[in-house]
Amino acid sequence: MHFQRQTISVEEALRRLLAGLTPLQEEQVGIGEAHGRTLARDLAATCDMPPFDRSPLDGFAVRAADTAGATPDRPVRLRVLETVGAGQIPRQTVTAGTAVRIMTGAMMPPGADAVIMFEQTEQPGELLEWVGVKRPLRPGENISRRGEEIAAGTCVAQAGTRINAGTLAVLATFGYAQVPVVRRPRVGLISTGTELLDVDQPLEPGKIRNSNAVMLSALIAEAGGIPVLCGRLPDDLALAKRHMAKCLEEVDLLVTSGGVSVGDFDVMAALADDPDVTLLFNRVAMRPGGPTTALLYRDKLVCALSGNPGACFLGAELFVRPVLRRLQGDREAGLRRIRATLAETYDKPCPYPRYLRGRLTEREGKLYVVPDHNDKAGNLATLGKSECFLIIPAGGRGKQAGETVDVIPHAAPDWRDEA
Length: 419
Fold this sequence. Notes:
This protein is α/β, with parallel strands linked by helices. The chain is 16% helix and 27% strand. It is built from six helices and 22 strands. The longest helix is centred in the last third of the chain and has 19 residues, at 309-327. The two termini are 50 Å apart. GO terms for molecular function: metal ion binding; molybdopterin molybdotransferase activity. Its EC number is 2.10.1.1.
């Protein structure tokens, strides 16, 4: 199987990876620590919102019947009983011929059934005993009724929601000081290859520094996981298995880089033939990163990515990120595609779909994708500029500028003017 591999599509590979995966356990965190986490269960409104009838603007609370016939030329004059600010409780009841000066968000006084804004009264900026109302109002006009936005018991945040600032505002409104979230996955990282040096080591002939471990750590953290560095994998298969088994005791998922091809020292490729593992796949119809491999060992998932930086980056985005989303309770963890117009021709032939790094830009209301032509699997100089992967279908023609292509975004575009 090392040399005879069954090639499957990216979509089928992802289906096999996600099959059977369930969210990790729930844990409670303070609301100040919940940003970016995934909600573990549905949360409901603990009260009505608004919790009382209130004014949505600065003005005067009145009885609508008292404003009948009011015009700018012949305003209706009402006696002002008091001023009520937000957070204050009205002391007076509005009766015939009276009004209460009221601020935005303040509780409606008894007896009032409408609010006239300051701008539609005489001398709105002055604190006077009388107010002149310049137009008639309908009962209920300019009042936010109790529970009209959200009724108590209504679900306000669903399980699987990635908690953002808006979600936090909702949870705070309903008193959720502690938030039930899905535990963050611990992801073991193992590098393979005797050619690798640590980042702080000086270069030696035939050696390169280990950029993949740093890159993968950042991608995993960005996806909500906790990267756990597990060192290097020995070239000896028996030693490699023991090392992996030890790492798997401490993590939920293991990600390796390198060793997936057909070379003499590619230990991850050799592991695919081992009777102690369940192979999910070891070749994907994609460029770069075709030898990407996934297997189950000790009942845990192992994603073995290419050692070439560009292919490793692609594999992490296509496969590791969706796995992390699913482990954190995302029900729609698959790849999310959009359509964009190709800004530059790419006609390099390929027997498999090619996933090109690219950037998104907007011109005159139309979305374009600009391919990164630095597309060799080992090239990493332009990784930091990548915002998406544009898919060039298999075959010899490629795609011409102006054609529409599928795009998988992986970073927020910065919308720089390409000109």
